[in-house]
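Schema walk-through. Below, the input block comes first and the output block second. Nothing else is stored per chain. Lengths vary across the set, and this one has 488 residues.
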Amino acid sequence: MNVISVVIPTKDAGPGFRETLEAVFAQQIDGQIEVVVVDSGSVDGTVALSQEFPLRLVQIPPQDYGHGRTRNLGIAEAKGEWVALLVQDALPADQSWLRHLISPLQSDHLVAGAFSRQMPRPGADYVSRTVAHHWHRLVGGRTVLEITDWEDFQQQDAEQKLSCCAFNNVSSLVRRSVWQQIPLPDVAYAEDVAWALQVLRSGYRLVYEPASVVVHSHQRSWRQDLQRAYLDGLTLAEMFDSEMPLPSPTEVQRTLRLAEQECLAAPPARWDPTEMPAPVEQAREWYRRRFTSRSVAHLLSSHSSWQVNRDDTRVGALCRFLDWQDLRPRQGIRPFPGLTTLRRLWTILRRVWLRLATAALGQLPIPSRLRDRVFCAFWQGLGWRHLQQAVMQVNGEHSEGLLERVAAIDYWQSVVSMADHAVREGVALSPNLLGRIRCHAAATELGKWLGRAGHACLRAGQLHGPVAEIHAALMSGDDLWYPASRSS
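--- output ---
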């Protein structure tokens, strides 16, 4: 009979761990289930609770714990060729969780692992639900991760690389024969993504299997979100060799100050996406002033980071978006006969301008009204990051304040995205919810960029002074935050 192993690292798992173990042993699967619990110094009864079940308990000192190291120990102690990895607070949603997780590995020998869909806990707030649903909403269904061209992968930005390697050990399954060649890296953080990168580079595949579901979500404070995001940014920048200009201590201080100000601010009374914080408005204006004909040409060229459908062109996609913007009904305005036809003719003329600008490599001036509409299209509808890259690559600018501008805009885009999604779902945007959304977005997006800045400073050997203080506080998790009142 086949043995299917489940490895669960624990420390002070709490009484809810009983429900997790019961759900694991209740799995309906063709084979024998073996459970290995690796405990690193629990003092709350987790060990005694585990001993009530027919599982193998391995105990290690707390100082020996490591995300990759401890899971490697559990896999080594297990007997199965297929080994599921589960965190202590993830609950299999049904009796087919494990069977669905194994399925991708049974049908394709090049699949090295699979990971589950996460669902929020009952009663989770909107932000926690959104975070739990994030990956499924991003990809929309069962997805195969693979790297078919390493050189092409290397040309992608850090966010695209992360999407390609987004393996998740909250609930995953690995093939032992692959793990024997490529064990989980002994890293301080994100061992699952680091393993995925090595496995995919070696020619294997990974599968996101949404039919395998676990219940798992957290409602963290903004300080916890900030620390987690900092670790994400620091680790992933190192993992994906993310290049970032070396920020000054002043930029780092101001970026952390913005996070604190937004997280400690009183909740807004209503939702108005145009009422953006002053640093966001300043960053938007900075990019608008630098958005030139050459920037438009770059966006529409083969060097652009803007991806469109295979059967489409960037010019055509942008023109259709501008058509839609132009032809939207305007409230309170009754169109005259033939007005729509005139608008269509004007759109055709603008298409000519776009094509000429591309052909002339941006040397041909574009009317400022059209340039502003293209800018707004990318800013509001197509993703500001492509616009940012066009401005930076065309102008070659890595000036003072880049960290603040990028971080501030990412923060506001996250707020707008989450708030708009709530409106589409029919969720009432109360002041409390708006405050929670802004806190989560500020801590997550600004913390991520602070982590990347920390990596740039480490790489340059310039982690000292106020930057070192911020790094030490965020790495240790101490309740020590750089005072917002301290002068720049």
